[in-house]
Amino acid sequence: MSIVTVGTVAFDAIETPFGKTDKIVGGAATYISWAASYFSNDMNIVSIIGDDFDMDELKKLKARGVNTDGIEIVAGEKSFFWSGKYHMDMNTRDTLVTDLNVLLKFNPVLPASYKNPDILMLGNIDPALQAKVIDQVTTRPKLVVLDTMNFWMDIAMDNLKAVISKIDVITINDEEARQLSGEYSLVRAARKIATMGPKYVVIKKGEHGALLFHEDNVFFCPALPLEEVFDPTGAGDTFAGGFVGWLDKTKDISYDNMKRALIYGSAMASFCVEKFGTERLRELTQEEIQIRVNQFINLMKVDITID
Ligand code: AMP
Asked: pTM of the full predicted structure?
């Protein structure tokens, strides 16, 4: 199968209690692609960068088999820049800077080879652009997955709701689910979000795991208790990349397989937070991933007899 993803390819500056980075490579589509590249061998990015971007980074993605032909490079423009600061509680962060820069000029045009993906992964970006990407695929993908964040809810809620009505799976964090639905209870929030369009609602709760809602079913995958969370940036996107990567690899988009995808997404996210930026995602082996997934399975397993 194949995946097309749209999202930011960006520079980030991150501050956590463990350290601080200058500009490092980040962006939603970057994390999604690194994570998915361990599963999918037909991963394609649509994005935009300025000529200040480190072009070696694109070579590294290509070396992992990711197609970067859909990344537009605009001369004389700066790449999207985001800066955030985490407190001791790594579940919350303050956004310090969001410089849209070249994103303001983005009018995504899918290369011909991108027009028939099996899975369309709409990464975090302006919802109007997510909609433009949906409009360009010639046959409806088997699965359309969307990730977003509070920034877009604050400034583009109507466009966001319009695109949400066209998708199959939404992945958002707990606070965003509350903001989108106006409901505090996550069960109620998921139910309300499902009435907006998606048949599957994934709510990410950081170190408290992730929930998958579908009709009257709910599945829970915990997060792996880690001794040290170094930098949570990109964990949500990495989760999404692992999730779609697994579905793509197994060619199975059933609810049962989505439960497995939730575990693979969570496993990839648990690696992401172990180092700054995308560093940890660049050095993984299939064996490490398998060991990590087994740790999740053991974490979730219980023998119990009820008389
Ligand atoms: P996450 O920690 O999974 O929410 O994703 C963090 C990544 O999202 C960073 O690498 C940022 O470059 C990117 N990002 C932050 N804000 C935005 C935004 N408003 N739109 C698109 N991407 C963003």
From this structure: 0.96
Beta bridge partners of 49: 73
- How far apart are the C-alpha atoms of 99 and 110, rounded to whole Å? 24
151 lines ligand 1 (CB under 6 A): yes
Residue 159: Cβ-neighbour burial (10 angstroms; 0-12, 13-18, 19+): middle
Mind listing the pLDDT tens digit for each residue in 69-90?
A: 999 999 999 999 999 999 888 8
What DSSP character marks residue 251? T
- Asked if residue 50 has its Cβ within 6 Å of ligand 1, the reply is no
Q: Which residues partner with 15 through β-bridges?
A: 20, 85
- Degrees, nearest 5: CA angle 163-168-169: 95
pLDDT tens for 134-175 read: 999 999 999 999 999 999 999 999 999 999 999 999 999 999
Strands 80-86 and 66-74: unpaired
Closest-lying ligand 1 atom to the alpha carbon of residue 93 = 2
Q: What amino acid occupies position 190? A: A
Nearest Cα neighbor of 45 from 120, 149, 95 is: 120
